Amino acid sequence: MTEMKAICCTKYGGPEVLEMSRINKPVPNEDEVVVKIHTTAVTASDCAIRGLNVPGGHEFPIKQFMRLGMRLFLGFTKPRNPVLGLVFSGVVEATGENIQSFKKGDEVVGFTGNSRGAYAEYKCVSNKEIEAGEMILKPKNVSHNEAASLVYGGVLATHFMKTSNIEIGESVLIYGASGAIGTIALQLAKHYGAYVTAVCSAKNFDLVASLGADKMLDYTKEDESNKLERYDFILDAVGENKTSKLKLACKKSLTTNGKYVSVDDGLLKIYPDYLPTLKHLIETDGIRAVIDKVYSLENMVEAHTYVEKGHKKGNVLIEVV
């Protein structure tokens, strides 16, 4: 069989457990397509899987039970599918005979869900995954790098904001507004017509202002909590593992019927309309990508090391080809 390059997670641990390997190139069955991947991204979820990191501030023994649950779900000593990677942008190389929705040469973008596998030159996507909304045609007005950087934050921001029912003129706070999820959530909130307060470090104020933020707060400053107002919706886009005096104060700054949502709340389920809705907004409303760094597939360990520091702006990408 023909081989391809892929990054494999040899066991749970730090970035050094990721190794360049050569594995069999996938061959599509009658209900699959093979995508030649151009770009993937290193996401916080990839790092969590690689390190078997439990989201939230849980303590022993709850954290140990949650880690056991993760091992049972993902694989006990290492991921059952050692090739990580949740997002991709690429080109359809071949299709099975039962595939009607895509053809060879189509530029596509996807969120792999539980199958993962985007840290490789090629990936099979099943018709079942296509029907579930995990792959669509790439937005025409963005590059492969831009498309790959919009998927993770776009899907998660859409998921966690879908019940917010934000209306024109309402007040929204995005905690972690300069990250992969926060940069898209900020733009979505502005699309809905909200007044948006962005929480990030001062060095990223220009970035979030360029995305439409009306007010900025620096989470590193002790007295920023005095500048909080009342918010109809608050999104914690960094998760419960990261906290500050300002975040604790945010939770007490909701309006009477306001809603606070964390990205650690519940399991992510991709709905078929998420990616098509995101594509429409990219093509018509100017939702744009934020790219911090771009690495090669060979430099995956360095990319994971950088992302795990927790200070990236937007997205860190991996160019596979």
Polypeptide structure, described:
This protein is an alpha/beta fold and 321 residues long. It folds into two domains: 3-138 and 290-319, Medium-chain alcohol dehydrogenases, catalytic domain (Quinone Oxidoreductase, Chain A, domain 1); 154-262, NAD(P)-binding Rossmann-like Domain (Rossmann fold, 3-Layer(aba) Sandwich), CATH 3.40.50.720. It has helices at 44-51, 62-74, 127-131, 144-161, 180-191, 205-210, 245-250, 274-284, 300-308, and strands at residues 3-9, 18-24, 32-42, 87-95, 107-111, 122-126, 135-137, 171-175, 195-200, 215-218, 231-236, 254-262, 291-296, 315-319. Strands 3, 4, 5, 6, 7, 13 and 14 form a seven-stranded mixed beta sheet that branches. Helix 6 links the parallel strand 9 (195-200) and strand 10 (215-218). The radius of gyration is 20 Å and the shape is globular.
Quick tags:
seven-stranded mixed sheet; 2 domains; Quinone Oxidoreductase, Chain A, domain 1; five-stranded parallel sheet; Rossmann fold; alpha/beta; 321 residues
